[in-house]
């Protein structure tokens, strides 16, 4: 995070003047105030006094940083919804409340500064980060200010930061081992976004088991999706164009698996007789869609509860909990 000295230097004013802008703005000229505020927004400066307030005063309010832009589908993913219910319940049991915080990543420095001011105004005791939040410089500024942060499925670390995740690599191994045990040799996969940690871990575990069995994945057998239905549908259509086509597909998310099954139905193919499908997450629809989706289950309630427990531990003590990775389990149904 930028320092007050850097901000003063960039503006060509004294440190004392910068301090007055944020603490007693009425004694600073309008022109100077605007200069300092604009530069603070540009470099993502968070005033020290605001940082101390965030880190020491108690409001019993925990901020939830979650990308809820209506143009993105993340807000409606059933996996995240289930985690949120568990998180809220566990925090409420400790007398803590959730406040939705949504930094506007498209608004640049000015948007980041508005986000920081909103957080300061609500005086949250800590922040839980879901989805894309940790990539935003405004969220990084909160962590640098000493605000307790718990991230979900993001390796977000620091003196007052920890994270909760699933054993994604182990889950990928479970999926591969199951398909090999079923006798499949032509196996492909639909991954999550390659730049996300869970997707990379699931693919690494999947590849490792195939390699142990003396098999490998061609580049054309690995198609990236975005966790959602349409991408699974599109990816499966690409895999069906392969010659020979795969006899089994591991979709690294259940919504993508459901989209893939829809593509198979449209092509007149049967699951699992023509192509077997394994998903990941165990969302509610996995047990409802015929013939029932075989999937690697994450402990969604456990993830939300563990995140809440980590936050409470930081708010009540001085030790930052170690990162938590919850085990995954294979749920066998009719699709594979």
Automatic annotation (TrEMBL):
InterPro entries linked to this entry: HTH_LacI, LacI/GalR-like_sensor, Lambda_DNA-bd_dom_sf, Peripla_BP_I
Respond yes or no to whether keyword DNA-binding is given for this record. yes
Species of origin:
Actinoplanes siamensis
Q: This protein is called what?
A: LacI family transcriptional regulator
Q: Does the keyword Zinc apply?
A: no
Q: Per the database record, which ranges form the HTH lacI-type domain?
A: 2-56
> Which residue windows are transmembrane per the record?
none
Q: Which domain of life is it from?
A: Bacteria
> What are the record keywords, sorted?
DNA-binding, Transcription, Transcription regulation
Q: Name one GO molecular function term.
A: DNA-binding transcription factor activity
């Amino acid at each position: 995070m930028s320092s007050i000295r850097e901000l003063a230097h960039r503006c060509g004013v004294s440190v004392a003047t910068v301090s007055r802008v944020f603490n007693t703005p009425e004694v600073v000229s309008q022109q100077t105030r605007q200069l300092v505020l604009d530069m603070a927004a540009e470099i993502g400066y968070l005033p020290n006094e605001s940082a101390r307030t965030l880190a020491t005063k108690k409001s019993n309010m925990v901020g939830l940083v979650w990308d809820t832009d209506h143009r993105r589908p993340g807000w409606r993913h059933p996996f995240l919804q289930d985690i949120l219910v568990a998180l809220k319940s566990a925090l409420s049991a400790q007398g803590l409340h959730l406040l939705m915080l949504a930094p506007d990543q498209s608004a640049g420095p000015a948007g980041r500064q508005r986000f920081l001011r909103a957080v300061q105004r609500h005086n949250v005791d800590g922040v839980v980060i879901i989805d894309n939040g940790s990539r935003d410089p405004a969220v990084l500024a909160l962590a640098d200010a000493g605000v307790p942060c718990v991230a979900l499925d993001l390796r977000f670390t620091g003196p007052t930061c920890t994270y909760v995740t699933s054993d994604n690599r182990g889950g990928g191994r479970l999926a591969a081992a199951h398909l090999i045990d079923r006798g499949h040799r032509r196996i492909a996969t639909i991954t999550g976004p390659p730049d996300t940690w869970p997707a990379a871990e699931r693919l690494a575990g999947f590849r490792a088991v195939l390699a142990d069995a003396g098999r490998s994945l061609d580049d054309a057998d690995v198609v990236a999706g975005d966790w959602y239905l349409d991408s699974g549908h599109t990816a499966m259509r690409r895999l069906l164009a392969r010659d020979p086509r795969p006899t089994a597909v591991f979709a690294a998310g259940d919504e993508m698996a459901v989209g893939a099954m829809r593509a198979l139905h449209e092509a007149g193919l049967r699951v699992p007789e023509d192509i077997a499908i394994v998903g990941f997450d165990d969302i509610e629809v996995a047990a409802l869609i015929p013939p029932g989706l075989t999937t690697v289950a994450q402990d969604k309630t456990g993830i939300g509860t563990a995140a809440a427990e980590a936050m409470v531990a930081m708010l009540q003590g001085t030790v930052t909990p170690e990162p938590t990775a919850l085990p995954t389990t294979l749920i066998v149904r009719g699709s594979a």
